[in-house]
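Need a sequence for this fold. Nothing fancy.
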């Protein structure tokens, strides 16, 4: 089941339909659906999908050529000996049968580039000298290391700087889209929502806990038809902060104007 990401899919579709070659980086933290977005897009388009790994460059090139053989329907590509990424990518583009653009999606790009540091420069040369005039390639570079993607792909010191025709920074699904995934987990207790005031701890002490179903997550507010509310038991004064929160205080003596910041703890940051 695939939900949401209409804007991201529309951007990729626009790049595929355009009259020129295109380059679209996709980046964001782990587990937000970058790979699933690419797979969803390629389910309706012919293309080459390759996942980088922590492996030597030679092994990755052989795996890439096997993927290219499947994508192009040219079994001999799997046996073609290549001595670098430029020759490998040239072999694929030369044998692309069409119709439409050749979509080359390199997922987990940070691992491929780590094993082959020259790869960004190779892609830059191909974009400028061959793919731009041919108008038949859509390059997608996807990475989970945001710092790497911003520095080595998007940064002004990257060989690829200025070549992108679009970019997608993936964020977690919004509440409305996430509510559509509710049928996958059955009909158990609904999500627990809390209203927060100045202090999350105090708000949890004083607020109501609301159990809601998908319709409430998609827009129905607390207290509407179908919602069940239960009082939160009063905690002990010395109870620790709820595990879902991170408490940050300035490294100085406590003062009347002392401010404590609370934020939601996110294991994927």
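Here you go.
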């Amino acid at each position: 089941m695939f939900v949401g990401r209409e804007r991201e899919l529309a951007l990729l579709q626009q790049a595929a339909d355009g009259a020129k070659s295109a380059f679209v980086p996709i980046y964001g933290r782990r587990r937000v659906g970058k790979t699933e977005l690419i797979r969803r897009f390629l389910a309706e388009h012919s293309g080459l999908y390759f996942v980088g790994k922590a492996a030597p460059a030679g092994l990755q090139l052989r795996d890439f050529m096997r993927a290219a053989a499947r994508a192009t329907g040219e079994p001999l590509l799997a046996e073609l000996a290549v001595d670098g990424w430029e020759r490998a990518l040239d072999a694929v583009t030369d044998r692309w049968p069409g119709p439409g653009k050749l979509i080359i999606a390199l997922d987990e790009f940070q691992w491929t580039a780590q094993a082959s540091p020259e790869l960004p420069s190779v892609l830059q040369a191909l974009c400028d000298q061959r793919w731009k005039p041919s108008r038949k390639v859509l390059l997608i570079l996807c990475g989970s290391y945001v710092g790497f993607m911003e520095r080595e792909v998007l940064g002004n010191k990257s060989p690829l700087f200025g070549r992108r025709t679009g970019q997608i920074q993936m964020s977690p699904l919004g509440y409305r889209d996430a509510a559509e995934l509710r049928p996958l987990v059955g009909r158990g207790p609904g999500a627990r929502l809390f209203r927060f005031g100045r202090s999350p701890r105090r708000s949890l002490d004083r607020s109501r806990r609301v159990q809601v179903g998908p319709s409430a997550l998609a827009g129905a507010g607390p207290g509407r038809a179908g919602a069940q509310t239960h009082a939160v038991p009063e905690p002990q004064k010395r109870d620790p902060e709820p595990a879902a929160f991170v408490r940050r205080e300035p490294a100085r003596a406590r003062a009347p104007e002392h401010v404590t910041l609370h934020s939601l703890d996110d294991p994927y940051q």
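For context: The two ends are 25 Å apart (CA to CA).
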